[in-house]
Amino acid sequence: MMFDPTRDAGLARLVAYTPKMGRHYAGNRNYDRPGHDDVSRLSPYLRHRMVSEDEVLRACLAAHAPSTAEKFIQEVYWRTYWKGWLEHRPSVWTQYRTGLDQALNDVQTQSGLRRAWGDACAGATGIDCFDHWARELVETGYLHNHARMWFASIWIFTLRLPWELGADFFLRHLLDGDPASNTLGWRWVGGLQTVGKTYLARPDNIAKYTDGRFRPRDLAAFAAPLDGYPNPDRTALPTSSPLPKGNVGLLVTEDDLTPDWITDQISVDGVALYDGTAHRSPLHLGERLTSFMTGAFDDTAKRLGGATRLADVAAVKDWAAGFDAVVMSYPPVGGTADALASIETHKLIRPYDAKAWQYATAGFFKFKDKIPKLLRAYDNQLSLI
Ligand SMILES: Cc1cc2nc3c(=O)[nH]c(=O)nc-3n(C[C@H](O)[C@H](O)[C@H](O)COP(=O)(O)OP(=O)(O)OC[C@H]3O[C@@H](n4cnc5c(N)ncnc54)[C@H](O)[C@@H]3O)c2cc1C
């Protein structure tokens, strides 16, 4: 299974999958089947906004009634919800990174942990489904949602490895590796996100949804919630900066590789690309991921008609100094936002995010009630960007 790192490839996948967004998705989305044709596999494109949620929702609603495509639409909004939830509580990302540093220190000093972690990442645990998914992740940069849930559950409750090491393994290899969906997905499995509620991988569930390819034995039979910090109080959401004046540079990062919605509002005097993917992990990233991102940035440069490539944060600072102001798409909570924190920029939030994030205050079910209201913007196919 290959992911061509271009916007055109993402749009082609969107066109090809649109007929399946209704009943087909609802009936088949939980099956982890070779090739993964039953799900959209749009996430690497959505994660980097090579294709936007807005484009996906418009295509979906042009082909299906909202009621028929309800499940698919809800899944698209899960990404939005997780991002909004983390924007309300950015310290959860910082806690994850602190916990990861601690776990990586423990790996250095505890040889048993180091061996178990190495075996899990190499797909050498002896649990056939888990080993299959570990290798699939490294080889393709993708895992089905159900496989991510089973994998995280086995990692935490059967192998009893620190969850932060598993989340980091995902972020080093997933082409869609996302600070919000990943951190909060792992926390959800471990019982930290929805307090007291864990996800237990069950052999009969794995057998059913892998069409009998796997029926693991000796998985943990109980999943006691992990100890952790309580969810922090909400902080204020970020707001969009005003449009800058004067000589303006546009900075593009991997968080938004289609910045046309910014250049539609303001003319810029220079464009630069900064690939902050390496900030996803303190360790080296997998080859599939780095080559996908190199291709995605090449494609972006081509689409923008050329751009300066900036190798590191110092280069971003030097480049920014040549303008009166720098404008960029708001970088959501995560490694790139952390890395660029000391550089003054005008950060514009996509209207799609601004409209939805305000509702990501508590659980998804409360957020879900707002989806019909958010979808009303599409009644006359108005773009939210
Ligand atoms: C432990 C764990 C870690 C995860 N880590 C990531 C991650 O790093 N990056 C990431 O993008 N997703 C992550 N997910 C969510 C989900 O697994 C993927 O978004 C989905 O599998 C992508 O495949 P798809 O595009 O074929 O999805 P489809 O089923 O076709 O869904 C369509 C779109 O809806 C969104 N979506 C679907 N399910 C979810 C979900 N559960 N949470 C958030 N958005 C969803 C995605 O944008 C996806 O492209 C994680 C889930 C778990 C349980």
TrEMBL record:
Binding site for FAD: Y25, F72, D176, G177, D178
Domain Cryptochrome/DNA photolyase FAD-binding: 72-199
Cofactor binding, per record: Binds 1 FAD per subunit.
A single BP term in Gene Ontology: response to light stimulus
Gene Ontology molecular functions: deoxyribodipyrimidine photo-lyase activity; DNA binding; FAD binding
Annotated Gene3D superfamilies: 1.25.40.80, DNA Cyclobutane Dipyrimidine Photolyase, subunit A, domain 3 (1.10.579.10)
Alphabetical list of Pfam families matching this protein: FAD_binding_7
Keywords recorded for this protein, A-Z: FAD, Flavoprotein, Lyase
Domain of life: Bacteria
Cofactor: FAD
InterPro entries: Crypto/Photolyase_FAD-like_sf (IPR036134), Cryptochr/Photolyase_FAD-bd (IPR005101), Cryptochrome/DNA_photolyase_1 (IPR002081)
Name of this protein: Deoxyribodipyrimidine photo-lyase
Organism, scientific name: Pseudooctadecabacter jejudonensis
